[in-house]
Design goal:
Elements (H helix, E strand, L loop, with lengths): L20 E7 L6 H5 L1 H8 L3 E7 L12 E2 L9 E2 L1 H11 L4 E12 L2 H8 L3 E6 L7 H6 L3 E4 L9 H12 L11 H4 L17 E2 L2 E2 L2 H4 L3 H19 L1 H4 L6 H11 L10
Parallel strand pairs: 1-2, 1-6, 5-6, 5-7
Antiparallel strand pairs: 3-4, 8-9
Helix pairs in contact: 4-6, 9-11
The protein binds S-adenosyl-L-homocysteine (SAH).
């Protein structure tokens, strides 16, 4: 820890564990993490000591001269299953009192933004990546706190899923994004999708930017953005509106959309 630079606590967000927090990832393929953890925002967050992410090679805990980590399934059938012993041995060296151990698995709880926020409150996450046909059932039953799925499709391994979780959780930590307020404005933060965004030029080949965004009037910009966020969510993800946290004005817009109104009836 001594090489980790001190972290300012000034920007601490309520409910997010104070930085630095730690994520340990257990995998048969450590090389898969090199690029994603080194580049851009994640790379910078690690370099600044805002989050510590360590990769652990499961192979080192494999049995025998060949460091075997998988075996054929009892009962027959194709594919290989990750064995319990190497995962247990690896976990033993990493687990702390305050660890939350996650197995990435298609049968797990669906990973969403609220779950990312929940995990960001944990001081120590351990992400275990399955491979091949998956892991011995006793791993799920006895070694992990929960299973998470990143969606209803099957990957070749848990590595990409672990990177998705590590990325979504890390960007919630104070100081990781340049703009402190950004995570609160992103899609899903209030159960809504984000409003449309534009940057220069104002007019590109006749494609223009909405007047409200150029007005310099913060109140007008804010109303336009909120109205467009409600509109976009209503159009694309109406399922989110069942639990969205709407103000009376936003609710009024939503009721209007259901009756055939459009955003330009309310904001311009
Ligand atoms: N036979 C398994 C799939 C194994 S895929 C089944 O039918 O459920 C191999 C590994 O990839 C899994 O052990 C898991 O760690 C990872 N994986 C695959 N799809 C995933 C998903 N949608 N979310 C999280 N992890 C996934």
């Amino acid at each position: 820890m001594s090489e980790v630079p001190p972290v300012s606590r000034a920007g601490t967000r309520p409910g997010i564990s104070p930085s630095p927090s730690r994520i340990d990832i257990v995998t048969l393929f450590p090389g898969m993490f090199e690029g994603p953890l080194r580049e851009s925002i994640l790379g910078r967050a690690r370099a600044r000591g805002l989050v510590e992410i360590q990769i652990h090679s499961l192979r080192e805990h494999g049995g025998g001269r060949h460091q075997v980590t998988d075996d054929a399934p009892f009962g027959g059938g194709g594919g290989m299953i990750l064995k319990t012993e190497p995962l247990a041995a690896c976990l033993e060296g990493i687990r702390r009192e305050d660890s939350w151990v996650v197995l990435l698995d298609p049968a797990g709880r669906r990973f969403t933004q609220p779950v990312a926020r929940e995990l960001a409150r944990r001081p120590h996450l351990i992400l275990m990546c399955g491979r091949y046909e998956g892991v011995d059932e006793r791993v799920r039953e006895h070694l992990v706190d929960e299973e998470l799925s990143i969606g209803d499709y099957v990957l070749t391994g848990g590595e990409l899923a672990a990177l998705v979780v590590a990325d979504a959780v890390t960007r919630l930590h104070p100081g990781v994004l340049g703009d402190q307020a950004a995570p609160d404005r992103d899609s899903f933060s209030r159960g809504l999708l984000e409003h449309p965004q534009y940057t220069r030029p104002e007019d590109w080949q006749g494609w223009t930017v909405p007047a409200a965004l150029l007005s310099g009037d913060h109140g007008r910009v804010d109303r336009w953005r909120r109205c467009m966020a409600v509109w976009r969510t209503w159009q694309r993800r109406p399922d989110l509106l069942e639990t969205a946290d709407l103000s009376p004005e936003e609710q009024k817009w939503l009721d209007g959309f259901s009756q055939g109104r459009v955003p330009s009836d309310y904001v311009s």
